[in-house]
Write a structure and sequence with these properties.
The model is unreliable at about 20-25 (pLDDT under 50). This protein is mostly helical. Helix 3 (about 40-50) packs antiparallel against helix 5. Helix content is about 75%, strand content about 5%. The chain has one domain (about 5-174). The longest helix is centred in the middle third of the chain and has 54 residues, at about 85-140. The protein has a two-stranded parallel sheet. It has helices spanning about 5-20, 35-40, 40-50, 55-80, 85-140, 160-174, and strands spanning about 25-30, 140-145.
C-alpha cells in the first residue's frame, strides 16, 4: 500500500545512528513501521473521515455496483456460451472488458486517495515515530531492529509494532 522504498530509507535512517552503539548482547526486535502508524487512532480517524466524504463514498458504491454487474455479466456469458454465436461472444467479451476497465479505474482511484491520506499521516507522525522508536530502542535495550517484512521469520515475542502504536497514540493525545 505504501512506498516500500521510502519506508526502508526512513527505517535505515533511523537505525544507522544506533548501529554503532548497539550492544552485542542487546535484544533483537522487528517492527512494521507502516502497520504501527496505520493502526494509530489518528490514522484510523483520518481513514474514517475519508470514507465519510460524499465523493469517496459515491465512488465506493459505484465500484461495488460495477463489480456486481461484472460478476452477473460473467455468469450470464458462461451460462449462454453454448448458444451464443461467435459475434455475440465477442460482443459480450468486449462489454466485460469495458466493465473490468471501469472497475480497475475506480479501484485505483480509491486506493490512491487512501494512500494519499495515509502518506499524510506518515509525514505528520514522522518526528513522533522516530522519537518513539528511539526511546523504545533505549528502554528495551534493543541491539538490532529489523523491518518485519525483511525478516524471513520472527516469533511474535520479537514484534514491537503494537508497543510503537500505543506509544504513538499516547504521544498524539498529549
Amino acid at each position: 500500500m505504501f512506498n516500500t522504498a521510502k519506508t526502508m530509507v526512513l527505517l535505515l535512517a533511523l537505525l544507522v545512528p544506533f548501529a554503532a552503539h548497539a550492544q552485542a548482547a542487546g535484544k533483537v526486535a522487528v517492527l512494521d513501521p507502516e502497520g504501527a502508524i496505520i493502526n494509530t487512532d489518528e490514522a484510523q480517524k483520518r481513514l474514517k473521515a475519508l470514507a465519510a466524504q460524499p465523493d469517496f463514498d459515491k465512488d465506493k458504491k459505484e465500484l461495488e455496483r460495477l463489480a456486481k454487474e461484472g460478476q452477473d455479466m460473467q455468469k450470464q456469458m458462461q451460462k449462454d456460451a453454448s448458444i451464443m454465436s461467435a459475434a455475440q461472444k465477442d460482443e459480450a467479451r468486449k462489454k466485460l472488458e469495458g466493465k473490468a476497465n471501469d472497475i480497475e479505474y475506480l479501484r485505483r482511484k480509491l486506493a490512491g486517495r487512501q494512500q494519499e491520506a495515509m502518506q499524510g499521516v506518515m509525514e505528520d507522525m514522522d518526528g513522533k515515530f522516530k522519537k518513539v522508536v528511539t526511546d523504545l530502542i533505549k528502554s528495551e535495550n534493543i541491539g538490532l531492529l529489523l523491518n518485519k517484512r525483511a525478516a524471513m521469520h520472527a516469533d511474535n515475542s520479537y514484534d514491537i509494532t503494537s508497543r510503537v502504536t500505543e506509544a504513538l497514540n499516547k504521544a498524539n493525545s498529549q
